[in-house]
Specification:
334 residues, alpha/beta, Rossmann fold, 2 domains, 12 helices, 12 strands, binds (2R)-2,3-dihydroxypropanoic acid
Length: 334
């Protein structure tokens, strides 16, 4: 597809010069097949997580297709060869990329919004249900063959219907969660920097500051991006604003939560349960979470459906295709 002119005068056939890209992680087979078809793609068959060796590996490439495992800091971006024109991340979140540093070097950064909205909202719903209905304790009881009697007060959880769900960040994923939670009979409240138009709000109640949202949130979901200012947003003080026995879920980013404060609130029962799909420093997680029966934990599965992971890969390739066709990539961040 990306044809460079061959030496017509010599009678050589027209040579096809595909751009060279480095794909830093294993991607779904259909995505790797398309990358190999359309690019001179350096794939990572072993799925080794690259580190300081990345600049050397990318020598001679024009673009990188990365995942959130690759930390594209200012220093890393400065070390990239001059030939690099684009960094396409296989994620909607891009806090692992110093976008300003990339922009300063003239490198286009793209992400994969939209395609993972439904899958991530489904995991948020799963976390709400699992945390509120004590799924972890139920699973353990059955798996460890300890369930020997049914009784009327066994593992009583919290019902979702009729409860207020506070969503911090009513963006695409937040709204998809709101739609699903409404179907479960929940009343939706939210905070964004600016109030949404009624067609996007869909009846959700706006709170002009996050603290006001926390005060009404019997269930609370983090759906905002991770930024330096939002680090440890959910600290002891803010957890203390939640109604007694609230349920907290996080499908956004781990560093939005002060782990020690949440662990303490889960231990004391001040927070009834938490459903967490993301963790600061993942895949390492704060070990205390593992010992808490009221913490329902998943290994960052938000976008992990076959359909969505294919769509994310195709979206990242669409962005590169556009760039190499001389167009502005649809999801350019710079
Ligand atoms: C995203 O796309 O940001 C998901 O969290 C996967 O990293």
């Amino acid at each position: 597809m990306f044809r460079a002119a061959g030496n017509r005068n010599s009678g050589d056939p027209i040579m096809t010069k595909k751009p060279t890209i480095l794909v830093t992680r294993r991607l779904p087979p259909a995505v790797e097949a398309r990358a190999a078809r359309d690019y001179d793609a350096r794939l990572n068959a072993d799925d080794r997580v690259y580190g300081a060796d990345l600049p050397a590996l990318v020598e001679g490439c024009e673009a990188l297709l990365i995942c959130s495992s690759e930390k594209m800091t200012q220093a890393m971006i400065a070390a990239l060869p001059k030939s690099i024109r684009a960094i396409a991340t296989f994620s909607v979140g891009y806090e692992h990329i110093d976008v300003a540093a990339a922009k300063a070097r003239g490198i286009v950064v793209t992400n994969t919004p939209d395609v993972l909205t439904d899958a991530t909202a489904e995991i948020a719903m799963l976390l709400l249900l699992a945390a509120a209905r004590r799924a972890r304790e139920g699973l353990t009881l059955v798996a460890e063959n300890q369930w020997n009697k049914w009784y009327t007060t066994m593992l009583l959880g919290r019902q979702l219907s009729g409860k207020r769900l506070g969503i911090l960040g009513l963006g695409r994923i937040g709204r998809a969660l709101a739609t699903r939670a409404s179907g479960f009979g929940m009343e939706i409240h939210y905070h964004n920097r600016a109030r949404l138009s009624p067609d996007l709000e869909q009846g959700a109640v706006f709170h002009p500051d996050p603290e006001a949202l926390l005060r009404v949130s019997q269930f609370f979901s983090l759906n905002c991006p991770s930024t330096p200012e939002m680090r440890h947003f959910l600290n002891a003080e803010r957890l203390g604003l939640l109604p007694e026995g609230a349920v907290v879920v996080n499908t956004a980013r781990g560093d939005l939560v002060d782990d020690q404060a949440l662990i303490e609130a889960l231990r004391s029962g001040r927070v009834f349960a938490a459903g967490l799909d993301v963790f600061a420093g993942e895949p390492a997680i704060e070990p205390a979470y593992r010992k808490l029966d009221n913490a329902f934990l998943l290994p960052h599965l938000g976008s992990a459906t076959a359909e969505t992971r294919d769509a994310m890969g195709f979206c990242a390739l669409d962005n590169l295709d556009a760039l190499f066709a001389g167009k502005r990539p649809p999801n350019a961040l710079t």
